[in-house]
From TrEMBL, chain A:
<feature type="binding site" description="covalent">
    <location>
        <position position="188"/>
    </location>
    <ligand>
        <name>heme c 2</name>
    </ligand>
</feature>
<feature type="domain" description="Cytochrome c">
    <location>
        <begin position="64"/>
        <end position="150"/>
    </location>
</feature>
<keyword id="KW-0732">Signal</keyword>
<feature type="binding site" description="axial binding residue">
    <location>
        <position position="122"/>
    </location>
    <ligand>
        <name>heme c 1</name>
    </ligand>
</feature>
<keyword id="KW-0479">Metal-binding</keyword>
<dbReference type="InterPro" id="IPR006311">
    <property type="entry name" value="TAT_signal"/>
</dbReference>
<dbReference type="InterPro" id="IPR036909">
    <property type="entry name" value="Cyt_c-like_dom_sf"/>
</dbReference>
<keyword id="KW-0408">Iron</keyword>
<feature type="binding site" description="covalent">
    <location>
        <position position="185"/>
    </location>
    <ligand>
        <name>heme c 2</name>
    </ligand>
</feature>
<feature type="binding site" description="covalent">
    <location>
        <position position="87"/>
    </location>
    <ligand>
        <name>heme c 1</name>
    </ligand>
</feature>
<dbReference type="Pfam" id="PF21342">
    <property type="entry name" value="SoxA-TsdA_cyt-c"/>
</dbReference>
<keyword id="KW-0808">Transferase</keyword>
<dbReference type="GO" id="GO:0016669">
    <property type="term" value="F:oxidoreductase activity, acting on a sulfur group of donors, cytochrome as acceptor"/>
</dbReference>
<keyword id="KW-0574">Periplasm</keyword>
<keyword id="KW-0349">Heme</keyword>
<feature type="signal peptide">
    <location>
        <begin position="1"/>
        <end position="23"/>
    </location>
</feature>
<dbReference type="GO" id="GO:0046872">
    <property type="term" value="F:metal ion binding"/>
</dbReference>
Amino acid sequence: MARRAAFLAGAGAAALAAGLALAQAPGPAPEPHRTITSPESGRNYATPETLAIQDDDFQNPAFLWVEEGEQAWNHPAGSAGQSCASCHQDATASMRGVRARYPAYNAAKGRVVTLEQQVNICRTERMGAPELRIDSRELNAMTAFIGLQSRGMPMNVDISGPARPFFDRGEEFYNTRRGQLDMRCGSCHEDNYGRSLRADLLSQGMSNGFPTYRLKEQRVISLQFRLQGCVNDVRGEPPAMGSEEFTNLEFYLAWRAQGLPVETPSVRR
Amino acid sequence: MSRANAPLRVRRGVAERRCIVMRGLGAAARFVLATAPRDVIGEEGALRGSLLLVVAIACAAPFTEAVAQTAAREPVRLVPFEVVDQAIPRPLTDTPGNAERGQRLALDRSKGNCVTCHELPLSADFQGNLGPPLTGVADRYEPGELRLRIVDTKRINPDSNMPSYYRVEGLNRVRRDWAGRPMLEAQEVEDILAYLLTLR
C-alpha cells in the first residue's frame, strides 16, 4: 500500500517535471524589454566643443590610433608570419559592419566574445602571436581601426539562441545595485540622464562610440575601461577588463544601443 | 532592531595579510594615484588623504574576485540608533553638530559630497541635480527626519538613488577600501545635520 503510494507520488513528480521541462524548452525566449525605447547617443550630451573635435577626422586625436591600427593590420606578426591582411585582405570591405555586430556569440568558444577578444583569438590561434592586453594601446588602435569601418551603420547585435543566456547575465549585472553608493547602472543612465552629477551631464550610457578618445585621459579608451570607472565611482569592486562579467555586460549594452549608428572613434570629455 | 548593527561575517584573507607586508611601498601608492579613476563621485581627495588606503587598493588589484570579497576588513561597529516614525529623534553622539564643519563635509568629495547631487545655497564650481535643491530643507523636515535621511534614506524610500551614509550592511560588492565602513562617521552625520538645519 505504502509502496504503491510512493510509486504514484514518484510518477506524479516525474510527470510534473516533464511538464515543466516542456513548458520551458521550446520556443525562443521572449523579447526583452528595453527601458529606453528610443536610445540617444552620448554625442547628444557632449558639448559643442567636444563634438567639433569628434566631427573633424583631422582634429580627432583618435585617428592617430586608427592609423596605428591600419599599419598593424598590414604588418606580419607571430610565428605564422601572417598579417591580418593575409587572411582578411582589405579591411574596408572585410571588416565593414563587424563592429556593429559585436559582441557576438562564438560557436567554437561556446560563449559571447567582444571585438577585442576576437582579435586576440585570431592572433593566438591563427597567427601564433601573443595576446594583446585589453585596453592596451595596440589593441585599442586595432579596434578603433576595425570600428571605423562600421561608422554610421546601426548597432545590430544578435542576442537570440545560444547567445541569450549571456545577454541575460549582462542585463542582470546592469540592473544590480552595487558599491557603497548602492546604485545600479540605470540609477544614473536611465533614471537621471539629462541631469548633472556635479560637472558631468549624465548621458544614457550608450556604447556606440567606443573605443573613444577621452579628453581627460588624453588617450583612446576601451569600453571596459570606462565601465571600470563607472563601477569605481559608486565605490564598487570592478570586475577585471576582459572578464566574463564585463563581456556579458558589454553585450547587453550593445543591445541597449541597438539601432544607434556606430560612432567609432568618438570623443568624450 | 537596527539592521545596521547586525554582525557581518567577514574573514581576513591572505590578500590582506600580504597587503600589510606591502604597506609603505611608495611605488604602489604612486601607481594607484596615477591609475585610479577620479571623476563623478570623485575619490581624489580620499586617495590623496590616505597612503594606507592606497596601499590596500594596490594590493587588491592582482587578486581574484573571490579573494577580494573574502578579504574585506572587519566591519566597523556603528553607534546604535532608534528609528521612530521615519525619523531618528536622538543624536548619534553627545557632541552637538558643528554646522561649519558640516558645510565642508557636504562639499568634500570623499565625505558627504552632497553637492554632487544637490544644489546648495553656496558657491561651488559645479552643483548637481539628481536630488532636489536643499535650500529650505530645514523648513520642510524635523531634525530627526533629516537625520534618518542622511543615515539611511532607503528606509523611507527603498528605491532611492541617494546613498545611505551611515550603514555598512546589505551592500553588494563594495570596493575593498570602503568595505565594512560607513560613508560618514557618527559625528560627521551630526555635523552635516547641523549644516542642513541652517538651510531655511
